[in-house]
UniProtKB/TrEMBL annotation:
Origin superkingdom: Bacteria
SUPFAM superfamilies named in the record: alpha/beta-Hydrolases
Organism lineage: Bacteria, Bacillati, Actinomycetota, Actinomycetes, Micrococcales
Gene, per the UniProt record: axeA
Name of protein: Cephalosporin-C deacetylase
Domain Acetyl xylan esterase as annotated: residue spans: 1-323
Pfam families: AXE1 (PF05448)
Length: 328
């Protein structure tokens, strides 16, 4: 179904004035310091996934509050030289699934780490393995959405504060893995994963690059007002009941908004947007793209919805990273 957000010309110049909360940097600095101080080991267990050319491991690392977060680590079998790594984050409601589902980056010669999403993994795909331990113990086991309003009354209790911290801590953990070049860490993702990639690049500003596709969690207030579908509409339905909580809700959401994290991200970035996207409206994507502090490129898919460029965009990403390493 055609979706009209803004004209292409309007999108190209769309730079909304969205001041970050006054204590944005202070809060996030404290949050990451607390997570790092919580300690915890990075554990690596080899996995026999039946892949003759790919070596796979199950990684557990400490995320928010030191909570254990799972990830898959794939790389070409027999790789001996130090190599760059792509760290990818997942879309809303999905888990890390099975090892053999995501082979592109390892097949291209990269290390590849795919982070599980705490508490998610039961809406689509092949499941998740990470509980939202700080969100309620056993009650935080992988479940269906919605997560958008979980703990939203306060920044300290908000679900996405924990998840964004996990993304930053995943970068920390990846840099300790053998064979990985810690100066060539690329963060990546689509939809929710794109929002997490933006946040990781802002919270860990020395990553080498970012691949951001049709990102969620950007210009969130506008997304709530114009998106036709979830996850943004979870917030709209919540506020339809809690009519007196609009101000406090959007105050909390501002701390996870990708526009503010993009303004702190220095790495070269390749964005993509789909102009018929009624899940993450194009204007919300452009808001983050135009806020990005480092160099950034945008790829536009005029006739696609939230699926975006898919394999076509992956082909562009491979080329983008080839050029990135050539220019370093």
């Amino acid at each position: 179904m055609p979706f009209s957000d803004m004209s292409r010309e309007a999108l190209e110049s769309y730079r909304p004035d969205l001041p970050a909360p006054a204590d944005f940097d202070e809060r996030w600095t404290a949050t990451l310091a607390e997570a790092r101080a919580a300690g915890g080991e990075v554990a690596v267990t080899p996995v026999d996934a039946g892949l003759a050319l790919i070596e796979a491991s199950d990684v557990t690392f400490p995320g928010f509050g030191g909570d254990p977060v799972r990830a898959w680590w794939l790389r070409p079998r027999g790789l001996t030289a130090t190599a760059p790594v792509v760290v990818e984050f997942n879309g809303y409601g999905g888990g890390r699934g099975l090892v053999h589902e995501r082979l592109l980056w390892a097949a291209a010669g990269y290390h590849y780490v795919f982070m599980d999403t705490r508490g998610q993994g039961s809406a689509w795909g092949n499941g998740g393995d990470t509980a939202d331990a700080s969100g309620g113990g056993d009650a935080g086991a992988p479940a269906l959405p919605g997560f958008m309003t979980r703990g939203v009354r306060e920044v300290e209790t908000y679900y996405f504060r924990r998840l964004l911290t996990d993304a930053a801590r995943c970068v920390d953990a990846v840099r300790t893995l053998p064979g990985i070049d810690p100066t060539r860490v690329v963060v990546a993702g689509a939809s929710q994963g794109g929002g997490l990639a933006i946040a990781a690049a802002g919270l860990v500003p020395d990553v080498a690059g970012a691949l951001v596709d049709v990102p969620f969690l950007c210009h969130i207030e506008r997304g709530v007002r114009v998106a036709e579908h979830d996850p943004y509409q979870e917030i709209a339905r919540y506020l339809a009941v809690h009519r007196d909580r609009e101000e406090e809700t959007f105050r909390t959401l501002a701390y996870v908004d990708g526009v503010h994290h993009a303004a702190r991200a220095q790495a070269p970035a390749l964005f993509s947007v789909a102009l018929r996207d009624d899940v993450c409206p194009p204007s919300t994507v452009y808001a983050a793209y135009h806020a990005w502090a480092g160099p950034a490129q945008m790829v536009v898919y005029p006739y696609n919805g939230h699926e975006g460029g898919q394999a076509y965009q992956q082909r562009r990403q491979l080329t983008f990273l080839d050029h990135l390493w050539e220019n370093r």
